[in-house]
Amino acid sequence: MYFRVAIIITAMVLSSCSSWVYRYDIPQGNYLDKKGIDQLQVGMNKEQVKFILGSPVVVDSFNDDTWSYVYKLISGRDKEFDIDKRLILKFTNDKLVSATGDYPLSDKFNIPFNASVPLEVTLENANVDVNISESDAGVTETTEVTETETEVDTSTDSDDTDN
């Protein structure tokens, strides 16, 4: 009798210790960080995207122009820590045209890659002389611009780091 009670108590004590067993996290797919996502821009070719994000987990068998980056983390602790994220990229003529999914895109995503960016030039204290002269053929205007100070703003924000 005592032997049966001892076995039942031992089984109950051991089953309560099952939460002490270490369960490890299982990551699957492409882990994409914000730094890589922020580098994406419309107009990049497939090689440039592959260099930034790595090879996609899934390439559509019927449409080679659709790449899927899938990341899934199964947590060993609790289901509330599980992660399931997707990023789907679409290409046309080997150029990136759209990105959809669970990752937020940067503000510069819709700026075409390698697009010329105009420099902001401000002219301060510029002297402008306008000479109007009449001739037999009509009125001609001559404009002469002399710059005394020119300021070119080429600074970029390189301190955009999230800590």
Automatic annotation (TrEMBL):
Keywords: Cell outer membrane, Lipoprotein, Membrane, Palmitate, Signal
Pfam family, any one: BamE
Residue ranges annotated for the Outer membrane protein assembly factor BamE domain, each copy included: 29-100
Topology class, membrane: Lipid-anchor
Annotated segments matching region Disordered: 132-163
Coiled-coil ranges from the UniProt annotation: none
Family in the record: Belongs to the BamE family.
Function: Part of the outer membrane protein assembly complex, which is involved in assembly and insertion of beta-barrel proteins into the outer membrane.
Name listed for the protein in its UniProt record: Outer membrane protein assembly factor BamE
Organism whose genome encodes this protein: Colwellia echini
Name of the coding gene: bamE
